[in-house]
Amino acid sequence: xxxxxxxxxxxxxxxxxFAAEIRRRPGVDLVVGVDVQPPRLPPEEPEGPAAPYRFHQxxxxxxxxxxxxxxxxxxxxxxxxxxxxxxxxxxxSAVKESNVIGTMQLLGACQKAxxxxxxxxxxxxxxxxxxxxxxxxxxxxxxxxxxxxGGFAKDAAEVEGYVRGFARRRPDVxxxxxxFANIVGPGADTPLSEYFALPVLPTVLGYDPRLQFVHExxxxxxxxxxxxxxxxxxxxxxxxxxxxxxxxLLSQCARRLGRPMLPLLLPAVxxxxxxxxxxxxxxxxxxxxxxxxxxxxxxxxxxxxxFGYRPVFGTPEAFADFAAAQRPGLLPPxxxxxxxxxxxxxxxxxxxxxxxxxPTRPRPRS
Length: 366
Hints:
This protein is of the alpha/beta class. It has helices at about 15-20, 65-70, 90-110, 150-170, 190-195, 215-225, 250-255, 265-280, 285-295, 300-305, 315-325, 335-355; strands at about 5-10, 30-35, 55, 75-80, 120-125, 175-180, 180-185, 200-205, 210, 215, 240, 250, 260-265. The chain has a 7-stranded parallel beta sheet with strand order 3-2-1-4-5-6-11, sandwiched between helices. The protein has a two-stranded parallel ribbon with strand order 7-10. α1 links the parallel β1 and β2 (about 30-35). α1 crosses α6.
């Protein structure tokens, strides 16, 4: 019998894409999807030969997942349901329970299943936090200056702690933790993509943070590689940062989208974020606000040299593909770029010819 893959979080865009892609991989006999709600769209049917697919609607906080693992003799578990937002609920406590309690139940079921041989967990670079005293670049071995105080980042940090405990109890299971930067793409459904969809982008006055992105195509490819046997000369167990090469400033993102920026003092932006959450306009959490203030950049050397994967899309290319799928902004990017270039040229000329020249004394001859 070949590989049987259990995928959590298949009702979301990334989970559905991964489930469809892993079905195409040779050696996969069955893909089992689980989520608290059925997918909004029918599962994507791969072209050509594909492994069969089964869906179970269940809540990971309940012990029913152990029955599903035993019934299908699952040997590979890919946990993608740890998320910043809940399905059908915006209640923060319900989201936390789904992330943390759901993961604990899943790990407990995996620990009791002798057939489970591989576990892949989707995490986030948010576990490093965003603070003014942060290093320029985070590597996998670094600890955040300030531990996440709440929200999705704290959930992910707790989940990683439980995963490390599982790895100690089941050393026979290959465990992989993937810390993804902000995932973007034409179908991205993350809180940050909701922020970039606003007609005007509120920003914190005096800050222009550095941001990293990973394209959803690269995210799916990394997950597929982690769910299989490592290629010669590589290792796919351990913890890996996943991000496209390069960085973008928030102001550069706004120009690429054609969105004007509205710089405000931090208290005003915080108040607007609370109002937006209460009115369900957009979910700008305190941790996301810190990201949009201080930014965050991670090192991806281990992803390239140990894991053996180099993202096809760099951060600028990934965001460009995301921007191409968005509604046009109030300021067309081409016109905004032309105005910016013209202002830069004018300022350059003023800097060289608009300032009075300072007379210099002749140097005395020796």
